[in-house]
Amino acid sequence: MAEFDLVELIRQRTRPRAGARGDIVLGIGDDAALLRMPAGHELVVTADTLNDGVHFPTGTAAADVGWKALAANLSDLASMGARPAWCTLSLSLPEADAAWVEAFLDGFLELAGAHGIALVGGDTTRGPLSIAVTAMGLVESGAALRRDRARAGDDVWVTGTLGDAAGALVLGGYLPPPPAAAPDPAGAAHAISVIEATHAAAVPEAAGSMPPGQPATPSPRAGREAAACLAARLARPTPRVEAGCRLLGLAHACVDVSDGLLADLGHLCERSGVGAELEIAALPASAALRAAFGERRHALQLAGGDDYELCFTAPPSLRDAVLLALEQAGTEGARIGRVVPGAGVRARSEDGHAWLPPRTGYVHFR
């Protein structure tokens, strides 16, 4: 299949959805797209690149790769309270495999259709498998959620559950199991060493190059059903778009959790000039993660990454309003800590011992 045949395949698959939006003047097929911006709105733009063996295991089903490539971008839009509108897709492929591209588009367009986002352009090239998506959304002028507006005294919240994706990688043999997560009563110094030692195991991308995918083999404590639930969360994360939109006017600051809770909340705190204290016991965990890892789950929840949940801050006076907004969005939420004066993110166990990890999430370049 030649390059322009590949582009035509993509254009034919996406044309019905693009036609459903009245704000696309010109889409796939020209040098660039022409889009009509509604008055009174700001454009929110984000971009993510997913590489084979780094962001997803080699051998991952093409439909799941397509879903995840878009989900990562939608999660960024969600963190700013933006409604998805348009996106572009750039594919680097070892070969022009029409069957693989069709399956990829199945997953990509399924998620796109659920959120009303239209594919309006992109690029194709030969090379190692890599997917780059740029997504654009709309938010009323001046209303967007940001990282830099958290205030001391705010509650810290998170949507959904944490640690499932990292748990799936452990059960799949891509990452070693995390050691016991509870800090030693000897004090915070041991807590630092625990987090430092588990960091590489807790962060999917820290593996560097994942081996070809193998079916997940549950540990004796994890049934096959639990392993399947975790694997589904890794393959097809749920971007919390509706939750982000409903948090407009309620949340002071927001960030999406993709590199790990401690790392991403740390970015939010740094931008806002504040610190945060978390209660480990309050971290929301799925039944599958509890079944698979028990108390060891906390290392995955704190630094596992690939969750694509929203972490946000809001004043205590709005707790009921936040819970109602999340309920209306069809999303569960948990209050996991508070914003404090100072700097840095600290997590405490139920017995009050501090976790002070020096490394809290994935960094591409060290």
TrEMBL record:
Binding site for Mg(2+) 3: D31, D76, D256
Positions contributing to substrate binding: H55, D306, Y362
Gene3D superfamilies in UniProt: PurM-like C-terminal domain, PurM-like, N-terminal domain
Binding of ATP, residues: G122, D123, R147, S258
Positions contributing to Mg(2+) 1 binding: D48, D123
GO MF annotations in UniProt: ATP binding; magnesium ion binding; thiamine-phosphate kinase activity
This protein's record includes keyword rRNA processing: no
Residue intervals of the PurM-like C-terminal domain: 245-347
UniProt: Mg(2+) 5 binding residues: D259
Catalyzed chemical reaction(s): thiamine phosphate + ATP = thiamine diphosphate + ADP
Binding site for Mg(2+) 2: D48, D76
Positions bound to Mg(2+) 4: D31, T46, D76
Pathway, per record: Cofactor biosynthesis; thiamine diphosphate biosynthesis; thiamine diphosphate from thiamine phosphate: step 1/1
Function recorded in the entry: Catalyzes the ATP-dependent phosphorylation of thiamine-monophosphate (TMP) to form thiamine-pyrophosphate (TPP), the active form of vitamin B1.
HAMAP family per UniProt: TMP_kinase
Protein name: Thiamine-monophosphate kinase
